[in-house]
Each structure stands twice: as structure tokens, then as C-alpha cells.
Specification:
Blueprint: E1 2-11, H1 17-27, E2 31-36, E3 42-48, H2 50-60, E4 68-76, E5 85-87
Parallel strand pairs: 2-5
Antiparallel strand pairs: 1-3, 1-4, 2-3
């Protein structure tokens, strides 16, 4: 299992980014969470099979229809407690 902490910058609040990410992560069978950051970005902890994590990263670079992703930073992280992917 691979786990990554992501910070996503751009127009990612108020456009359904978190709900979209929950749906995509659940579809890929990933564990973790996603939440808004005070500065206007989104942070997510994503864990699971490396191929599924990479697939979600590719999707996150585009995001949902109304989003504009300017940058994504990622770092390795310990896996989340529990299973499933949820919105915080």
C-alpha cells in the first residue's frame, strides 16, 4: 500500500472538488480523506494500490469541470487510520 499527502492549489474550493475526489477515490478503491485548507487549496491523504494512487493523481490534475488546478504537491505519508475515502 502506498500513501501520499497531496496539496492541490487553484480554483478548487466552491466547485465540487472534494465531492468529486471522494467519488473518484471510492471508484478506485482508495482509502483516505480530503479537506479544504484555509488558504483556498485542498489537502488529501490518499492510500492504496500504487496504480490506483497514480490514476487518482492523474485525475486530480484536471479535477471536475469547474475546477482549475494550478499545482499539486505530494509527499509520502503514513497510511490513514481505517478504510474508505471520506470528505472532512
Amino acid at each position: 500500500m502506498q500513501a501520499r499527502l497531496l496539496r492541490i492549489e487553484g480554483r478548487v474550493q466552491g466547485v465540487g472538488y472534494r465531492d468529486w475526489m471522494v467519488r473518484e477515490a471510492q471508484r478506485l478503491g482508495l482509502d483516505g480523506w480530503v479537506r479544504n485548507l484555509m488558504g483556498g487549496g485542498v489537502e488529501a491523504l490518499v492510500a492504496g494500490d500504487e496504480a490506483a494512487v497514480q490514476a487518482l493523481l492523474t485525475l486530480c490534475r484536471r479535477g471536475p469541470l469547474l475546477a482549475r488546478v494550478d499545482a499539486i504537491t505530494e509527499e509520502f505519508a503514513p497510511p490513514p487510520q481505517g478504510q474508505g475515502f471520506r470528505r472532512r
